[in-house]
Amino acid sequence: MRPLVHAGIKHNVSLYRPKSILRLILVGFVVVTVPLILALITAAVYVDRLTKHGQRSVVDAVNATQSSLMLVEHVTAMERNARQYQVLGDHALLDVYTSQHGQFQRDVAELRRVDLSRRQHEILDKLAFQEQKIYNQVNSATSTSTSVAAAIGEFSSLNALAHGVLSESSHLISENVGEIESLATHAQQLLIWQTLALIPAVLVFSGIFIVLIIRPLRQIENSVNRLGDGHFNEAIEVRGPHDLQELGKRLEWMRCRLLELEAQKMMFLRHISHELKTPLTTIREGTELLNDQVVGSLNTEQMEIAEMLKQNSVQLQRLIEDLLNFSSLQTTTQLIHREQVQLDRLVKDQIRTHKLAAKSKSVRIDDDLVSLAIPGDREKLRIIVDNLLSNAIKYSPLGGRVKITLREDGDKAVVDVQDEGPGILPEEREKVFEAFYQGKVPARGHVKGSGLGLFIIREFIKLHHGIIELVNEPVGAHFRILLPRHPSVA
C-alpha cells in the first residue's frame, strides 16, 4: 500500500490519493482494524499456550502422583511377600515377589518418562537401584539364609525412598501450578500493555483518516458556500480522492461560468444605465422647461402633470444612479478619493436638496448636527446621506417628521436618521441590506425602488470601515451609522 499523506507536505503534493472516497474509507477501516485483529490473534495464541501448558502439567502431575502411589504400594507388597517367603519358604511366594518386582520396575520406567525435576530423578534412580539389590539378594539365597533377612531389613529405607518420590510428585504439582500462574500473569501484563499501546494508535489512525475523509468534503462545502455568497474570485481546488477532485473541477468550471455571467451582468447594467441616462436627461430638461413655462403658460392641471413628470424623472434618475453605484461596487474594494469631509455641512446640503420632495408630502425635516469632520470619500458619503434621507421621506406619511442627528461618540461619528413610517419588519432586518431585495411594506410613490439603496449604503460604509445598524423603535425606521473620525481608527 502506498504511504499516507503527511501533514507537513504542501497541499498540492499528495503521497496517497485513492481513486475514490469509498476506497479511502475501506483503507482507513483496514488500517484501523488490523492492530485490533493482531491483538486478538496475540490473545488467542497466549490463551492456547496457557491451556496446553496447563493440560500437560495436569497430566504429568496426575501420572507422577499415581505412579508414585503405585511404587509405595509395590514396596509394601514386596516387603510382605518377602517376609512370608522367609517364614514359610514357599517358592510360590517367591514367584509372586518376582512378579511384583517386574511391575515395580515398569512403574519406575513409566515415571521416568514424566517431566520430573533433577532431585526426583536422583531419588528414583536410588530407589530403583536399591530395590534391584534387595531383589537380587532375596532371589539368590534360600529363605532361611542371613542374606534374605538382611535384604528384608533394607525394605524400611526402600519404603522411605518411595515416600520421598511421592512427596516430590506432590511438590511437582505445586511447581506446575506456580508456572501456570506465572504464565497467566505474563500473558495478562502483555495484553494490558498491548491494549494501552493499541488505544492511542487506533485513535491516531482514526483521526488521520477522519481528516483525510472530512477535509475534501469541507473544501467542497466551503466552495459551495462561497459560490452561494457570490464570491467568485477565489479559485476552487479540492485535494483528496480522485472522484472528489473531479467534483472540485466541476465546481471550478461552475465558478468560472458564474464569473463570466456576473461580468456580463455588470456590463449590461453599466451599458443600460448609461443608455437610459441620455433620454432621461432630455426628459428632465423638457419637464424643467414646462415647469418654467418657457414654451407658454400652463393651467393648473397642466402644472400638476408637469410637476409629476419632474418628480418621477428625478426618481428614475436616482434608480439609474443606484444601478451605476452597484456596478462600481463590484469592481471597487477601497476608497478612491480620501479627504477630510465636514460631515455636518454635507448633511445640511442634502437636507436642502430634499426640501422640495419633503414639502410635496408635507414632511418636516428636523436636524441636530454638531460640527464634525471625518476622513472619507465625499461623493460616497453624500450618496449615503442622500439615500437615507430619500428613503425616510419616501416611507414617511403625509405630514410626518424625519429627524437626522450628528454627534460624536469617542473616536466615532454617529449619524441617526429616523422617520415615522411603517418601519421594517423584524424578519426583514437583515434582508433589507441585500442587493435587489424589496421589502413587504410598499413605498409611497409612483416608481418602485430598485432594492439597491441600502445595499449601496452598507457597502460604502464598509469602505469607510464603519457600520450601519437598525435601532429598535416603536414607530418608524431608525438607522444608525458609526464612522471612524481618524484614519488610525479606520
Report how far the terminal alpha carbons are from each other.
Answer: 55 Å
Assembly type of the chains comes to: single chain
Number of helices: 11
Q: Percent helix among the residues?
A: 55-70%
Kindly estimate the percentage of residues that lie in beta strands according to DSSP.
5-15%
What gyration radius follows from the Cα positions, in whole Å? Answer: 54 Å
- Derived from helix and strand composition plus strand pairing, the structural class reads alpha+beta
Morphology call: rod-shaped
How is the largest sheet built, in terms of strand order? 2-4-5-7-6
Domains, number:
3
Order of helices and strands: HHHHHHHEHHEEHEEHEE
CATH class of the largest domain: Mainly Alpha
**What name is given to the CATH topology of the largest domain?**
Four Helix Bundle (Hemerythrin (Met), subunit A)
Structural features, described:
The structure is a single chain. This protein has 490 residues and is of the alpha+beta class. The protein folds into three domains: 21-202, Four Helix Bundle (Hemerythrin (Met), subunit A) (Up-down Bundle), CATH 1.20.120.1730; 241-331, Orthogonal Bundle (Helix Hairpins), CATH 1.10.287; 334-484, Histidine kinase-like ATPase, C-terminal domain (Heat Shock Protein 90, 2-Layer Sandwich), CATH 3.30.565. It has helices spanning 21-88, 91-112, 118-140, 146-153, 155-228, 242-291, 300-329, 343-353, 355-360, 378-395, 453-463, and strands spanning 339-342, 364-369, 373-376, 401-409, 412-418, 467-470, 478-484. It has a five-stranded mixed sheet. Helix 3 (118-140) packs antiparallel against helix 4, helix 3 (118-140) packs antiparallel against helix 5 (155-228) and helix 7 packs across helix 11 (453-463).
